[in-house]
């Protein structure tokens, strides 16, 4: 007989009964607040076209690198679950997930997926080999209903605003289409210039060419290249962007003179640069982006510290974003100094820092954000976007940075259906943390109630200027 | 209507009722023990002159870099709160603190300040914009009473002994005056030679000159310079010092031959040295200080790992110690080896290690202190002197170093009025930790009772030889 | 009157009553499962000869570097407790332990020893100065009984299989003798080639000579040296080995061409190599060992990150393994890439990673093991083999690696009598962790029950192919 699937209303709250009661009371005040999703990777085409999603496997398995990396780690071939393999039988691929679903015990993927199964699709039995077909059929059938089209889900999920992420040579046609459609959902873009900023990005030279075409600037000259960024940032802002995003290997910044920067850019354009020069160019560009943010008001996000495409074999066969990115030890205190020397005291500038290296929370990030007016801390990110990860974030940053140098939650996901689940986890964990502070009399109950709303909703809107 | 300010008697204890009851019982045994404050930065002039403190802003806001760094991080200009600005209206500056007091939710500054407000000044409403003037007036008026003069507070706080920190070219006049006054309060100094040991310290050359004048030694020769240290350490010991303190950027030590050290010193004296040589000189001087400690019995404290004056703009306008010091990743296992190769097995030597890099607690510091006879661990320091920080310290050091390779609590503060609050936090957190061990049957209750006294009082006296 | 010694049945369980009840129920299902000890350092001679152990001091104090390092850190000379001093009076040495037993409060050594005292020897009073002789006499007397001979204890402890660790020039005579004896206890070896792989190991050149003699291969040629490894691995496998073990200073791997490796080997053999070349050779050998594991199926363990023999004085007087090994910061993401580039996607290969640097749990190890099919995570190791250490391991690895990329517990000890205590601690802590997940509804109760058995028993058997 299938095991029942039931989402307990007290899930993720602290065990102590009185603390749990505090947490529940706080959560009850915020659980129905609208979702502000200021950073993520959903596809704007979904909302532009409003076409139905495909089957369970296409929607929930193939695009989710959290899920297929775990299966792969236990010997399930990527092809077998459909990654890079359009010929896969989606029902058979789904069965592989079902048969291996015990691997996700204790992981956030399990929490998110169970929410999607139970809340989004109304399934009331657990996923395993026995229920695999039931799941596949139920999900795939529902996806054919209008109630499961992207815009309907957007509204059902209570999303007030969602940001996608595009690069400068994206024409933002989907965003334009969404606006032109008259649909009321607020979908904005964000400016992620890595493909034209990172000399080591695949296709960098071609990207520069396209960047020049789109902007009418000479992107082989330093001044033209900077002008192109300014134009394109303005174009993105017209499509709702309030932020930029930078996914560099490190947090290094630089503060070169104009001549030095121009000379470095010439090497980069010529394709004759060392790894050190590539890093220096990325570093200088963070500072240039900060300078532009001071002018145009775009909030700057820095997401450093991932060793991308670590698995050479997987990269060769399947390409980017296949669950083979790995965190690296990351320095901020030295790395950010050049940028901070120039703009650190500008209260109008807003730079949101993320990390994959939790050892920096208490040692570097909270002390930096607790001093510099331009710095704030993004939420626990990627591998750390999980109950334990979020708790460590609060425990290690709050005492030095406070709550108001953090920016609420963002889901950073391309798994659209999991967005409510992710915000729900964050709200539950934050309410649990606040309840613990109340229980230890480090906060008054009325302060915790205010903070619960701030962390769930207000801070994200303020920090991202949405 | 103002919100009530009330310090709950069970604050900071674990939530579980039985564990909380154990914690309360332990705490009741230690809460009234005298305060031993073996390391800190109070001003000996307070106790020498016993003049009244000024107004609320002068006493509690302007000198407290924990407080004004948080305000600054949220855009409040330092000038507006009186930092480097004698012309500030203190009442208006206080209002800025009051209006932004919610920023401190979840921080130790909030705990310390609320204790000062409630316990030291008897205020029973919370600080906010509405109560700002009430606070300012109440505090400022009370500071005019004899009961709020430094010596009266010293006695009221139950301080058995307090150590200040002076550099070798300080004449220790205030300490002499305290002794000469016949007042019974025990105020001792500590020898912090950074200004004559760190070639990169502001005014290093002038400091050396003054060092020579005070000691009658030729401080431009290596042997004279060492002799000057020996004389000055003896002078400090006469003024009660039982310890030295070293605030280097890293924990690096060196073990040069006499000739090598003398040659390096000549470069340093001549002002012709590289950054690497400056670091090597500081490293060698830690080993020289250890050698002198073996002779004169002064306990050695090493406080490494701060990137001082990180904010170039703030340093240029406001100078040192303006909340812009940041922790750095710190190595101990390699850094201390030269010193340990020479003196590591000397049980008579006592070196107390501190860190701003919590990743070293379990990885390096506890294993070092759990082996070398000369090493002990100082308490959670600076950014980590907080409830969560103290818990992490105990959880990550106890299993390898035990309790008896730690040295109790020290407050390390210049905020005199917060000293009882800081010791109270440490006692509560330690009692909570001990209660958890009892609850998990890792300790017997009578052992926890002994340890509570050890951690609150005895270990600090023993470790600092007070 | 002596204090009672009593092991509480709920020890090490979470404090919250309902969570504790869950933990107890889980633990009751696993507490009597057989012990699988897939990695450790017991002496096979014990089981071959089955001679009685000596006195309390010889058995429990002198060989236990956890214990004597703590005594040494507090000024007790190593000679006085019998380390490197056969002339010590064992009763007097034992008294030093008894008098200093309070130093172990809060440490895992205390937990293990108390279990040995209470459960193995039936003592019901606490160890202190007053009970020192009682302890010494009771233990020493019981060790003379047949019931305390190695094989009897092996059976009484419910050990299903235990692995020892030998180097390639060990003749495995004891293992052969155990098999020849007809005794049913399963004692297997493991292949630890450090003495013939690490050019900086004491006696490396002599070891190579002996390696050649034993295998009949020319161990001064690269191909002969590799052939010798293959032969010797097969010989170890015949003596039950299912694993190899590698204790390198770092986790560095290399992927040299055959010619490069051969040239490097010639430098190593000639004794003319730099520290960098020694490191490169060790790195290359990890990759060579992985290649051989693909052929012969031996599971590969990597135990990196110890700075061995850090205390120069202790090493000079007392030699290796005297409590003076210290953890170092350790990188995995870069270090393992060469090996992973070659074999990372081989699901038949199994490499078990350990660490002394907990900052890598969430940042590097869990993300690596949660992606690469060949990688799994060993349990919390050495300084971290403790209640808090095990909790941190689970809290920081589970959300990204899951449970099934970990390998259960191994005790890694030479302290034979403590083996049941160590497994018991692991079972209690894991059951407590699972109970917390159930309490937060991150797991169903039936899943936790399955996992308790997996973590206590099944995963170790599977991962080590036992």
Question: What would you note in describing this structure?
Answer:
The structure is a homotrimer of 466-residue chains. In chain A, the strands form three sheets. In chain A, strands 4-5-8-9 form a four-stranded parallel beta sheet, with helices on one face. The first copy, chain A, has a three-stranded parallel beta sheet with strand order 1-2-3. In chain A, strands 6-7 form a two-stranded antiparallel ribbon. The model of chain A has no long low-confidence stretch (mean pLDDT 97). Chain A is 50% helix and 6% strand. The radius of gyration of chain A is 22 Å and the shape is globular. In chain A, helix 9 (173-181) links the parallel strand 2 and strand 3. The first copy, chain A, has helices spanning 17-30, 44-49, 56-61, 65-73, 90-99, 108-120, 132-143, 150-156, 173-181, 194-197, 204-215, 222-238, 258-270, 275-296, 312-318, 337-343, 359-369, 387-401, 419-439, 445-463; strands spanning 35-37, 159-163, 187-188, 243-246, 299-302, 306-307, 326-327, 351-353, 375-377. Chain A has two domains: 52-147, uronate isomerase, domain 2, chain A; 150-463, Alpha-Beta Barrel (TIM Barrel). In chain A, helix 1 (17-30) crosses helix 19, helix 11 packs across helix 12 and helix 19 (419-439) runs antiparallel to helix 20 (445-463). Chain A has 20 helices and nine strands. With 466 residues, chain A is an alpha/beta fold. Chain A starts with 16 loop residues before the first helix and ends with a helix.
